[in-house]
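User: quick one
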Amino acid sequence: MTDLVKLTIAQSHKLLKDHKISSAELTKAHLERIEKLEPEIKAFMTVCPETALSQAEAADKAIKQGDIRPLTGIPMALKDVLCTKGIRTTCSSKMLENFVPPYNAHVVDKLAKEGAVLLGKTNMDEFAMGSSTENSAYFTTRNPWNTDKVPGGSSGGSAACVAASEAVFSLGSDTGGSIRQPASFCSVTGYKPSYGMVSRYGLVAFASSLDQIGPFTKDAMDCALVMNAIAGFDDRDSTSVPQTVPDFSSGLDGNIKGFKLGVPKEYFSQNMRPDITEKINDALGVLSGLGASIDREVSLPHTPYALAVYYILAPSEASANLSRYDGVKYGYSYNPTENMWEAMEKTRAKGFGPEVKRRIMIGTYALSAGYYDAWYVKAQKVRTLISQEFNNAFEKYDALITPTTPNLPFSIGEKLNDPFEMYMCDTCTIPINIAGLPAVSIPAGFVDGLPVGLQIIGKPFADQTTMRIAHAFQCATAWHKETPRL
Ligand SMILES: NC(=O)C[C@H](N)C(=O)O
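Assistant: Done. Structure below.
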């Protein structure tokens, strides 16, 4: 008997199409798994079984009539930063505890049109600020590989639920690593598309020039199938790029012979664990065995500045974006007060957690008159230098290969009181957002029973190339097939 929760999208699709299983069965199997594991994993903010079962029923009806697309009837989860009409969307913040959006995010509509089934909304660091889900105002998600460890963040719930086989796939958002870092920590495939490839309409904004939505899946093929469904122009997002969506799954043939891959040395910094470097070296050996050429002498000298640039630009944008939470328009409101200003202050003081407040203060400072040129403008200039450096490298290479993270999943509480240590988790992922590039993290082995991720970075809008390399690697390895014992 097939273990329904272990199936990929592609495998489930085949069984659904051949009428060997129904979406209702598949959905029920996942809902049961959620019920069994959630007390331990805590990946979900909200589970919506009624919605899931009625969507599964609709999918089964469509399939009976021969109307089946790659995601029809497939149970999925969405990070709680994506607006879902009629379903609470909290961003794991007290500020939006009871916020029920009156509309769907663009990607949510797209997935609904495909017939995907929504199991629920996943836990995250508050407003996507963090690398461990410990900044959730509600609870910390556990890493399915070792429940004393964090699952990464900010999309920790979305990564954990796929790793724990509670959902076939999920969506997250990535501003500085929030998809790739938890994908690495949980040993799943996590994809950040090129900036502009997926509409941000209905994604609660953190840092708009960096945010992108992307999938968590069990392998690169599934990732391509989800990208096919969510990518594409949308005039409601002014940064959405008007170009035809490629077929992300075409070219996934396992062949990367002749591909030129560069390995930038700055990504193997002082804070990198040597046993992670070893795993990455093994992975490079696999890629070279597949016929790709590997150049380890690549240098991107501005890399060390990326973290500083990010922690000026992202908080600046956040301070502007989060000004909307004033207790008047929507969300939490504290109002037993004397006047409007006091109400606003108290709303924000009580509604936001410490990390969100820290970022708002950093951003407000960086944007304030007198400091704007010294911090914000300077960071923008360095951002351009970082982008140019990548563009130069891509004249020689088809893709760049790095570790996804400098560290292994760490213990719950370990970095919570040291924000800088937490920020350092993203040294390998942040430069990619700064330059708007596509990048994927794929499972590359284990150290002390904990997952290591490999990052493949592509040229702007060469998303298919990154996926092709990821797929080829997965044809030659089995790391992505390993699942935690739960
Ligand atoms: N949002 C992200 O992509 C994660 C990053 N760790 C941050 O805290 O900003």
